Amino acid sequence: MIASGERGSMIWVQRLDSLTASPLPGTEGATMLFWSPDASFIGFWADGKLKKIPKEGGTPLPICDLPGAWSATWNQDNLIVAQTDFQGPSVKISVQSGAVSPGKPLNWPKFLPGGKHLLYVNLDPEIKGLRAYVAELSTGHETELMPTDTQVTFTPDQPGSSQGYLLFGRGATLLALRFDVERLSVMGDPVSVAKDVPFFWGLGWSEFDTSPDGTLIYSTGSQEAQLTWLDRSGRDLGAVGVSGDFFGFFRLSADGKKIAADVFDFSSGGADIWVFDVSQATGERVTHDPGTEDSAVWSPDGTRIAYGSGQGGACS
Asked: Above pLDDT 90, what percent of the chain?
């Protein structure tokens, strides 16, 4: 996982049978991570390079130069497929030589067992949403799977089995659907595994992952935060508005009387702009479109707000 400590954002490793995590020096600034197929190395992106580091720590080793990386997956033939940007192109990377070759656009790639087929999601114009696909690495032949709102992973019935489940999200519900790796086919109807799993509608991402031995890990519930005034010494001067699932962006108006903040709804996967009066405990929701509206900026006179929106539009 990536977390912040005294040395800033870096990779931390925690055993599932332990309550403590340890940072890996040398991974400062890491923004994306993935495992080697034998779980001996962790791949990550930082400083314009794709790198790897032993899971116990050590000197990070560069794999190749890469302007950016959104997600990546690593197979038994020491081939990495990396998504360079959301909804952007992918690249194929040799771990041994560092050679980089272009690939097709895809999102959240994952190698299936055997490393010969790639599981990923892309926008399907016919359903106006995401769909899961499997592509054969050698030929590029693509097989359509089911609609999904999130990334998709495969978990086997037992280690090494070609029978198992595809795990994916629809809304905040985590689902499992029977899948045969050899036939590349789904079977039956999906069943619910967990409710209230936070997901991000605009990114097609949900907070879960699986391992090749069939282990599933996920989070549930809200990520509640509270906007709070602090003085220069860090002393708490009082709360602003009510607590909520803040998406991370908020802006104070020029007169210091109002705050525009992104408030996330993990049940719908979207965010809206709320405006809080710093002298009161309540706030007002000012955007109502589907999807995500975020990154509000005040006009100089404080009468209007500009913001980013998946639907387009403006707010006054």
From this structure: 48
